[in-house]
Automatic annotation (TrEMBL):
Cofactor(s) needed: Zn(2+)
Source organism of this protein record: Amphibacillus indicireducens
Cofactor note: Binds 1 zinc ion per subunit.
Quaternary structure and partners: Homodimer.
Family of the protein in this entry: Belongs to the cytidine and deoxycytidylate deaminase family. ADAT2 subfamily.
Name recorded for this polypeptide: tRNA-specific adenosine deaminase
Function: Catalyzes the deamination of adenosine to inosine at the wobble position 34 of tRNA(Arg2).
Keywords: Hydrolase, Metal-binding, tRNA processing, Zinc
PANTHER family in the cross-refs: CYTOSINE DEAMINASE FAMILY MEMBER, TRNA-SPECIFIC ADENOSINE DEAMINASE
One Pfam short name: MafB19-deam
The keyword Cytoplasm appears for this protein: no
Record-linked Gene3D superfamilies: Cytidine Deaminase, domain 2
HAMAP family hit by this protein: tRNA_aden_deaminase
Gene: tadA
Length: 155
């Protein structure tokens, strides 16, 4: 499978989040060309700060491999990781991250800052950004347009 194929699976996870009123961000973890875990945002449902798709995915990977190190994995996510998720990715020693849409407001894989390739850390991550960016961006744009319409109707 290609990066685009795996991103399509992350998009399907994002759609699950959108269907329950969550910001539609999804992620998959790949090991030896096999999807071993998938997750999506649940911050609104759980009302916990760390309920991002990447954080759930890393936890699932830790449990699966019985290790905090996810050194042989690639993380695919529909939106550029934020500072919290980028930090967790570094801590998990994930060697490669592929993301869809860039996030000019909170992206820490190049948009605002690039924590993942910063040579001051003891681990750097290979990045591929913009994979299926249009599809990933459209999910977010459509979600927030609908949310504004709903919220406007409540006034």
């Amino acid at each position: 499978m290609t990066d685009e194929d795996y991103m399509s699976l992350a998009i399907e996870e994002a759609k699950k989040a959108g269907q329950i009123g969550e910001v539609p961000i999804g992620a998959v973890l790949v090991h030896n060309n096999e999807v071993v875990a998938s997750a999506y945002n649940l911050r609104e449902s759980l009302q916990t700060t760390a309920s991002h798709a990447e954080m759930f995915l890393i936890e699932k990977g830790n449990a699966l491999f019985k290790s905090w190190r996810l050194e042989d994995c690639t993380l695919y996510v529909t939106l550029e990781p934020c500072q919290m998720c980028a930090g967790a990715i570094l801590q998990a020693r994930i060697p490669r991250v592929v993301f869809g849409a860039y996030d000019p407001k909170a992206g820490c894989a190049g948009s605002i800052i690039n924590l993942l390739e910063d040579e001051r850390f003891n681990h750097q991550v290979e990045l591929a950004g913009g994979v299926k960016a249009d599809a990933c961006s459209a999910l977010l744009t459509d979600f927030f347009k609908k949310l504004r319409v709903v919220n406007k109707g409540k006034k």
